[in-house]
Design a protein that fits this description.
The chain is mainly α. The chain contains eight helices and no strands.
Length: 227
């Protein structure tokens, strides 16, 4: 039982930190967008914050403790020293599965409903919007990829903690309207690309780090040229 409690507390600390940081970023780095949202639809903003709290401070600690207790710690690795290879591998696996799930939210009718709430924020983008998703979407698209990653990649708790933190920070960054014009590496998901996704909804499904759309579009173009 103490293992569950310890990992639950770590998960709660991580989740509450992300919630607090996103709210601070909303009011500082993204203050112009926050002011616009406060004027246009403060009720929607409050719904987004409430979704952050439920997802990150209620669901996340429970799911984190289950993952750590039954999968990560069962591997018997030293828990306190993150392995850079494991961290990057977990982030990569998360990006792959998020891309697949996110695209299915837009292309499969049975999945669309889970993603509708997140797209209510299309006109008003803020760091906190990154976790303003339905509970169903949070479990399927945000948490499940970490379970898959931990099952196929040997990792300790510190590596998992670091990978979750990286995904959370990047997810806030790509939803920040004030970062839209910043220069970005071509094969990474930029705020501009993800904001474009929120506007058009038919491209840029990748998030929050590796732009698989970029690779797939180039391969499609090349295959068409070769025919």
């Amino acid at each position: 039982m103490s293992v569950y409690v310890d990992s639950f507390c770590i998960g709660f600390l991580l989740g509450s930190t992300v919630v607090g940081l996103s709210i601070v970023l909303d009011r500082t780095v993204s203050r112009p967008s926050y002011v616009n949202m406060s004027i246009e639809d403060i009720h929607l903003y409050n719904q987004g914050v409430n979704a952050n709290i439920v997802n990150l401070c209620v669901l996340s600690p429970i799911l984190y403790s289950i993952l750590v207790t039954h999968i990560v710690r069962s591997q018997g690795l030293i828990p306190f020293h993150p392995d850079p290879t494991a961290v990057l591998s977990l982030v990569f696996v998360h990006n792959v599965f998020y891309y697949l799930v996110h695209k299915s939210f837009h292309t499969l009718n049975s999945f669309r409903g889970a993603h509708n709430f997140h797209h209510q924020f299309d006109r008003l983008m803020l760091p906190s919007v990154g976790n303003a998703v339905s509970k169903r979407e949070f479990v399927i698209a945000y948490v499940s990829p970490f379970y898959i990653g931990a099952l196929i990649i040997p990792c300790n708790e510190a590596s998992l903690f670091c990978s979750v933190s990286i995904i959370a920070l990047l997810n806030m960054a790509i939803h920040c309207k004030e970062f839209e014009e910043l220069p970005w590496i071509a094969w990474l998901v930029s705020p501009k690309k993800h904001i474009t996704h929120h506007i058009e909804r038919t491209k840029h499904y990748s998030a929050p780090l590796i732009d698989f759309d970029e690779f797939l579009e180039k391969e499609t173009v090349e295959s068409v040229k070769n025919e």
